[in-house]
Write a structure and sequence with these properties.
Structural class of chain A: mainly beta
Radius of gyration of chain B: 13 Å
Mean pLDDT of chain A: 93
Oligomer: heterodimer
Low-confidence stretches of chain A: none
Low-confidence stretches of chain B: none
Structural class of chain B: mainly beta
Order of helices and strands of chain A: EEEEEEEEEEEE
Largest sheet of chain A: 6 strands, mixed
Helix content of chain A: under 10%
Number of helices of chain A: 0
Number of helices of chain B: 0
Strand content of chain B: over 45%
Largest interface: A-B, 22 and 22 residues
Number of strands of chain B: 11
Strand content of chain A: over 45%
Number of strands of chain A: 12
Radius of gyration of chain A: 14 Å
Shape of chain B: globular
Largest sheet of chain B: 7 strands, mixed
Distance between the termini of chain B: 36 Å
Distance between the termini of chain A: 41 Å
Chain lengths: 117, 113
Amino acid sequence: AQTVTQSQPEMSVQEAETVTLSCTYDTSESDYYLFWYKQPPSRQMILVIRQEAYKQQNATENRFSVNFQKAAKSFSLKISDSQLGDAAMYFCAYTRTSGAGSYQLTFGKGTKLSVIP
Amino acid sequence: NAGVTQTPKFRILKIGQSMTLQCTQDMNHNYMYWYRQDPGMGLKLIYYSVGAGITDKGEVPNGYNVSRSTTEDFPLRLELAAPSQTSVYFCASVNGQGNSPLHFGNGTRLTVT
C-alpha cells in the first residue's frame, strides 16, 4: 500500500520569508501524481500544486514550487514571500494513475503552517 | 457551476441514530469519493465509486454504506451512529483524466454523542 509521510506537524515562517514543507512517499509504481492541498480554517480543500511523476521539471505556481526527487521519493513544497493568507494546514497527497486504486488520493497527516507578521 | 455540494454542513447525532450525508456534483464526473478527516490526521478514504451503479470500499468502510444510482449523486449512509464516527466528512469527485485534481465539497462536521 502507498503511504505518504509528512514529518513536520507544525511549521512557522515570518511574513515575506520562505518556508519548505517536507513530504515523502512510498510506492512501487512508476507513474503517479503528487499534489499539495491547502486547508484553511474554513475547512475547504484547495489545490496548491500538482506534479506528474514522469515529468522531471519541478512544478511551479506563482509563489509555490516543489522539489520533486523521484529516486528519493521526496516531494517538498516551497512557499516564497510568505503571506498571512498562507497560514493553513497543508496536505501532501499521492495517487496512482492506472489500475486498481487509480485516482484515489492517499494523504499525509498534514503540516500546520503559521505565518508570523 | 456549483461543483461538489455537500449537505448538511453540521450535524449532531445521538448514539444509535441514522443519517445520510448528501453529495451531488454537476461536472459529470465518473469518479466520486467519501473521505473522513479526524483531528490531527489526513483524510482517509471511506468508499468510492467509478461510475453509476459501481461502488467499492476504501480504507475505513466499517459503519457506512453508499449508493450511486446516478452520475451526480453519491450519498453516504450511517446506520447506527457511534462516537468513533465523530469526524469531518468530505465528498470529492474527479473526471479521471490526466492529472485532474479532485474537486472537494466543503465538508460536513458530524458529532455523535
